[in-house]
Design brief:
The structure holds 2 protein chains of 2 kinds.
Chain A (H helix, E strand, L loop, with lengths): L1 H16 L5 H4 L2 H17 L5 H4 L4 H9 L4 H8 L3 H8 L1 H5 L3 E5 L2 E4 H27 L1 H10 L4 H31 L11 H25 L15 H19 L2 H10 L2
Antiparallel strand pairs in A: 1-2
Helix pairs in contact in A: 1-9, 1-11, 3-9, 3-10, 3-13, 5-9, 6-9, 7-9, 10-11
Chain B lengths: L9 H24 L5 H15 L4 E2 L6 E2 L3 H9 L1 H19 L7 H25 L5 H30 L6 H33 L1 H13 L4 H25 L4 H10 L8 H13 L21 H35 L1
Antiparallel strand pairs in B: 1-2
The chains are: A mainly alpha, B mainly alpha.
Protein name (chain B): Cobalamin biosynthesis protein CbiM
Subcellular location (chain B): Cell membrane
Membrane topology (chain B): Multi-pass membrane protein
């Protein structure tokens, strides 16, 4: 059950990162959320052969890593997790799309390979963006951002509760798994005879836990209301938002690398 | 089965976001009507349960492989379709944020694929209609098995359509479907069997957990017309907004269509491709936006050797500049740290 303890570690690691006190961490969560979503939209909006235009977009994660004081490799390692899906789906592009698109030193590069490469680049950029958002913002601040987007409090409360109890339930699963594997050694998974009882009992326990949690919440004055700190917009938030949006729009409207290359080679 | 951001175009992502948001706001309205505060912690903890339970591997008899539960149907059975859908949405949001499983733009599609079909189609039409005649262990088993299988089939069908309309893969629609549906039939059967085993166990051990929701559903008629109306309206609204954006800034969808119709001479000459294309155009809803079409060469994409060299140099220079921005910030920060 290595993946369960891994997940607990993942959550805790990202949670701890979000407690830092850097320039990026201090920005208003709504600003960070908007910029992240805008960044992802711009990234995936490039055509499948436009790898060149994607290169300026690497500046955004680099800025977040350095200004946000986030270590590069642990986050990069996490972004590899999604790659297999994209690699598997994209592999048909080089096979099916054999139109030579570009010749470089007598080598013809087919459109399929270029679109495959652009898919991988997009995958990395979007995944890094999401991971950097959570590791510089944290779940509570994401909830504040969601509330300022007028997302109903029922959803936000329930979103936060789900998050809180994930680690509790993961620990329960670890102990269930340990107990099971001690009684059934050298077994890869759980035998079909125990499918129902094993998960079913956890479900019943979880159900009872929810009742106790509800009682606890009511005793502490819960009435369906969701309270949170207010974070104010500052001038810095506004500047960050404007600069980032302008930068992203520039990368979309102008092919910056080509302009730079043309200046250098004098074409 | 999670869609990734890289596999989706902004237009498809936006439309799916709007649809899922419409379904979510309708669900919130519905659960507000029979506001039972007790349900909020139950939803939260059950979401965490599904998240955690998906990590247990169950051995499939006779094979070396293993499977896990499907969350949507289980949540719909335990919490009802509306609360189940919202819970599934927050589970997927947490997976997208913390595990990069799916992405922020693809979240709308993931909520739709994994939450909508299970909670609003498979649960009411299959599970509910099977147990309508009275709850028995056998009916629960068959109902949850079938609902899981069909929910997942619809979900994977929708993954294929979303990837297809995003123009990501060169794979023709039909082969893509032939690749995806059988795999997900097998996965769905396993998920269904595990879900069915869990639900029947809960029914025999603590029937009252399943009873209240089911009795409520039997007495209440759900107005699906309203839900569909809300969904349609939001999809049309956002779709038209996005297409307005696309036409005023001919980059995305509009641009691709323009290119496809304008650059007919770049059409691939291979016979197989053309037949596939004509077949695809017949079966697809948006024939002009099909995938294996002509090469989309943008005016500023380097094609000949001269510009490809300057493109390459420019690209490398941009990457170099990006990295050096990072290094300069770091140097500056280290200096300030030392001074302090």
């Amino acid at each position: 059950m290595a993946n369960v303890s891994d997940s607990i570690y993942e959550i805790r690691y990202l949670d701890e990162l979000s407690q830092k006190n850097s320039f990026i961490h201090k920005l208003h969560p709504l600003v960070k959320l908007i910029v992240s979503i805008f960044y992802i939209i711009i990234t995936v909006s490039f055509g499948k052969y436009e790898i060149l235009s994607l290169t300026p977009l690497t500046i955004y994660p680099i800025i977040l890593f350095t200004l946000g004081d986030i270590k590069f490799f642990p986050i990069l390692k996490r972004s590899f997790l999604v790659l297999p899906v994209v690699l598997g789906l994209g592999i048909f592009n080089p096979i099916l799309d054999r139109e030579p698109l570009l010749t470089f030193m007598n080598f013809a590069i087919t459109g399929g390979w270029i679109s495959y490469l652009s898919l991988i680049m997009k995958c990395f950029l979007t995944v890094l963006c999401a991971l950097l958002l959570i590791s510089t913002t944290g779940i509570n601040n994401i909830a504040i951002a969601l509330r300022s987007l007028l997302i109903p409090k029922i959803f936000v409360t329930q979103f936060l509760l789900t998050y809180r109890y994930i680690s509790v339930l993961l620990e329960e699963i670890i102990s269930i798994w340990t107990a099971y594997s001690l009684r059934a050694p050298e077994q890869k998974g759980i035998s079909y005879k125990s499918w129902g009882p094993l998960l079913g009992q956890l479900l019943i326990r979880t159900y009872d836990r929810a009742q106790r949690i509800y009682n606890g919440m009511v005793l502490r004055g819960f009435s369906g209301e969701f309270y949170q700190d207010k974070i104010r917009f500052s001038l810095i938030d506004f500047c960050y938002l404007v600069i980032m949006i302008v930068f992203l729009l520039l990368t979309k409207l102008y092919n910056i690398p080509l302009i730079l290359g043309n200046i250098l080679t004098g074409v | 089965m999670h869609m990734a951001d890289a596999l989706i175009s902004p237009v498809v992502g936006g439309i799916m976001w709007a649809t899922s948001a419409g379904a979510a706001s309708y669900s919130i309205k519905k659960i507000k009507l029979d506001l039972d505060e007790k349900k909020i912690p139950l939803m939260g903890v059950m979401g965490a349960f599904v998240f955690a339970a998906q990590m247990i591997n169950f051995t499939i008899p006779g094979t070396g492989s293993s499977g896990h539960i499907g969350g949507g149907i289980l949540l719909a059975i335990l919490l009802g379709p509306y609360a189940g859908f919202l819970t599934m949405a927050s589970v997927l949001a947490i997976q997208a944020l913390f595990f990069a499983d799916g992405g922020l733009l693809a979240l709308g599609s993931n909520i739709f694929n994994l939450g909508f079909y299970t909670c609003f189609i498979a649960y009411p039409l299959i599970y509910k209609s099977i147990i309508k005649k009275g709850i028995t262990k056998k009916r629960i088993f068959v109902g949850s098995l079938l609902a899981s299988v069909i929910g997942l089939q619809l979900g994977s069908f929708s993954v294929v359509l979303q990837t297809f309309f995003s123009g990501i893969t060169e794979l023709p629609l039909l082969s893509f479907l032939l690749l995806m549906q059988p795999i997900h039939l097998a996965i769905g059967l396993i998920e269904g069997l595990i879900t069915a085993a869990v639900v029947t166990f809960v029914w025999s051990a603590r029937p009252e957990i399943l009873e209240p929701i089911n009795s409520k559903i039997r007495s209440k008629n759900m107005s699906y017309k309203k839900l569909i109306a809300v969904l349609l309206c939001s999809a049309v609204l956002i779709g038209s907004m996005l297409s307005w954006y696309a036409s005023s800034n001919p980059d995305g969808l509009e641009w691709a269509i323009e290119n496809i119709t304008g650059n007919a001479e770049l059409e691939s000459s291979e016979n197989l491709h053309t037949t596939l294309e004509s077949f695809q155009e017949k079966i697809s809803f948006l024939p002009d936006y099909s995938l294996k079409t002509k090469v989309e060469v943008e005016s500023n994409t380097p094609v000949d050797v001269g510009t490809s060299v300057s493109g390459l140099i420019g690209g490398l220079l941009t990457l170099f500049l990006a990295i050096s921005i990072g290094l300069v910030i770091k140097l500056f920060k280290n200096k300030r740290l030392k001074e302090n």
